[in-house]
From TrEMBL:
InterPro entries: AAA+_ATPase (IPR003593), ABC_transporter-like_ATP-bd (IPR003439), ABC_transporter-like_CS (IPR017871), ABC_transporter_ATP-binding (IPR050763), DrrA1/2-like_C (IPR025302), P-loop_NTPase (IPR027417)
The ABC transporter domain, residue ranges: 4-231
Family membership: Belongs to the ABC transporter superfamily.
Protein's recorded name: ABC-2 type transport system ATP-binding protein
Stored PROSITE patterns: ABC_TRANSPORTER_1 (PS00211), ABC_TRANSPORTER_2 (PS50893)
Domain of life the protein comes from: Bacteria
One Pfam match: DrrA1-3_C
Organism: Fodinibius salinus
Length: 306
């Protein structure tokens, strides 16, 4: 049985249909990524799973139980809007929140100290939350979510506001939780985080689940129709290529999706005639490419997909 089962849920706010007939399953012991641009419906779906919002129709179960205040206690949930008491001290607050989740004072203190240490934040124990930067208070919120050691975690945009070092630290901890057998669902619009972490994904666009399943299977299904090229010299040849789509493009690098009728050898010939090519490799498409192929270029604001 899947840990979370979402069956044909719908949710509207006035004329906006935020979630439309969405279904997906989150298997036990996996990291599941809810992915999609701003406004795609991820937070609405997460709030329904956490019983903060009620779906207009459809159903959601956690470990086979229809969502309710009872299932809320099974989840370590980090909402998008972070809610910590600004005047309270970090240590005091983490201990208080862990006790609310059922830990004894001694257990709460022990786990608080352990996690502050893991996040290199032991010195913050006596600081007020209001004194912390956005990224720092985000880490405290994360600790508050995981400290009572539930089996299921739901994080809404956990990486927003974190610098690369702290993102990496968080990523390692999420993977560690999965390796301990916990189930993790998180939302993001950052494709590379999903590529690096997720076992399963569900892609949202305009309130609909447009692609879902095991990430490896999805990538294999899309085939190795993509070329990664590294070169030195004039990059203008990239604009001359026909029947391709260039997704990631930076100085001396491009990811080129080969569309119907284009031959990879032609791309290589064109590249060599304009630049010094160091690497030309056929690869599986990136998630950005998969997303664009699935929803169509017209439906994507590239600035919303990192
Ligand atoms: N309480 C609300 N009242 C009215 N409209 C809402 C409400 N919550 C969400 N919406 C609308 O529903 C749609 C989906 O929003 P949602 O927050 O679920 O998207 P999201 O994928 O989480 O986006 P983001 O990545 O920006 O957080 C948007 O059009 C949003 O404006």
């Amino acid at each position: 049985m899947a840990v979370i089962e979402v069956n044909n849920i719908n949710k509207s706010f006035g004329d906006t249909q935020a979630v439309q007939d969405v279904s997906f399953e989150v298997p036990k012991g996996r990291i599941f990524g809810l992915l999609g641009p701003n406004g795609a419906g991820k937070t609405t779906a997460i709030r329904i799973i956490n019983h903060i919002l009620i779906a207009d129709s459809g159903s959601v179960t956690i470990n086979g139980i229809e969502v309710s205040s009872e299932t809320q206690n099974m989840i370590g949930y980090m909402p998008e809007e972070r809610g910590l008491y600004k005047k309270m001290k970090v240590g005091e607050q983490l201990i208080y929140l862990a006790q609310l989740k059922g830990l004894s004072h001694a257990q709460a203190k022990e786990t608080t100290k352990y996690w502050l240490d893991r996040f290199n934040a032991t010195d913050w124990y006596n600081k007020e939350i209001g004194e912390l930067s956005k990224g720092m208070s985000q880490k405290i919120q994360f600790i508050a979510t995981i400290a009572h050691d539930p089996d299921l975690y739901i994080f809404d945009e956990p990486f927003s506001g974190l610098d690369p070092i702290n993102s990496e630290m968080l990523k390692e901890i999420v993977i560690e939780l999965r390796d301990e057998g916990k189930t993790v669902l998180f939302s993001t619009h950052r494709m590379e985080q999903v590529e690096q972490m997720c076992d399963e994904i569900c892609l949202f666009n305009n309130g609909k689940a447009v692609l879902k399943g095991n990430l490896r299977d999805i990538k294999q299904k899309f085939g190795k129709n993509t070329v990664e090229i590294e070169f030195e010299g004039d990059h203008n040849f990239l604009d001359k290529l026909k029947n391709v789509r260039i997704n990631n493009r930076s100085t001396g690098f491009a990811e080129i999706r080969v569309l119907d009728g284009q031959d990879m050898q032609n791309i290589l010939k064109t590249a060599i005639s304009h630049a010094e090519v160091y690497k030309f490799e056929r690869v599986e498409p990136s998630l950005t490419e998969i997303f664009i192929s699935t929803v169509g270029e017209d439906n994507v604001n590239p600035n919303e997909l990192a």
